[in-house]
Amino acid sequence: MRDTIKFDAHGLVPAIIQDAYSNQVLMLAYMNAESLDKTIASGQTWFYSRSRQELWMKGESSGHVQKVKQILYDCDADCLLIKVEQTGAACHTGHYSCFYRDSSGQEVEKIVSDPQAIYDAAGNRGILFELYDIIRDRKEKLPEGSYTTYLFTKGIDKILKKVGEENAEVIIAAKNNSQAELIYESSDLLYHLLVLLVEQGIELDDIFNELASRRK
């Protein structure tokens, strides 16, 4: 990949960092060939500081590391887009994103110190991607004592049986007119549906793209 990227006269390329789950833009930094190599090798973001003229790893001192989920580059191969799983705040000011001010200079995002609140600020919709990644990891490693491991070990027939059972539970909850029950059973159904998608090698983006294609 490095041979494809067009670094500028200073040997640098801009890297846009984006939350892989919420798609929120977190920061902009620069990479040289070495920091890009370290990012690819380590699975965590490394950058080049133009002021200090040295490499630095995001979160090395703060603990707010960025786990790389995907690296993309644009049509001219002179800009990177790196999708990450962000721990804590991306901005040194304590904001989740460095882009926390609008055109008038007003803060549109408050400083968030609580890790759970930071996660909520990024958007709970990201939980689907997070759960999908966990399920895929379970399929690859098959840790003992895991219910997900049990499902994959039993195979497609067991997974399909559970999807059918949970679907029936959702119907019953709706007939009972119980929102709490419906939320609980729907969560079970979504989990088992994600297990089925992983088993079949279907990505969440495949589902979202199909839904988007139906938009009128």
Give an overview of the whole structure.
It contains seven helices and six strands; from the N terminus they run E-E-H-E-E-E-E-H-H-H-H-H-H. The protein has 216 residues and is an alpha+beta fold. The two termini are 37 Å apart. The model has no long low-confidence stretch (mean pLDDT 91).
Global morphology: elongated
Query: Helicity, in percent?
Result: 40-55%
Order of helices and strands: EEHEEEEHHHHHH
Strand order of the largest sheet: 2-1-6-5
Strand content: 15-25%
Number of helices: 7
Estimated radius of gyration: 21 Å
Give the integer mean of the pLDDT values. Answer: 91
Low-confidence stretches: none
Structural class: alpha+beta
Largest sheet: 4 strands, mixed
Beginning-to-end CA distance, first to last residue? 37 Å
Number of strands: 6
Q: Concise description?
A:
This protein is an alpha+beta fold and 216 residues long. It has helices at residues 33-42, 115-122, 127-141, 147-154, 156-175, 179-200, 204-213, and strands spanning 13-19, 25-31, 46-49, 54-57, 66-73, 80-86. It has a four-stranded mixed beta sheet, with helices on one face. A two-stranded antiparallel sheet has the order 3-4.
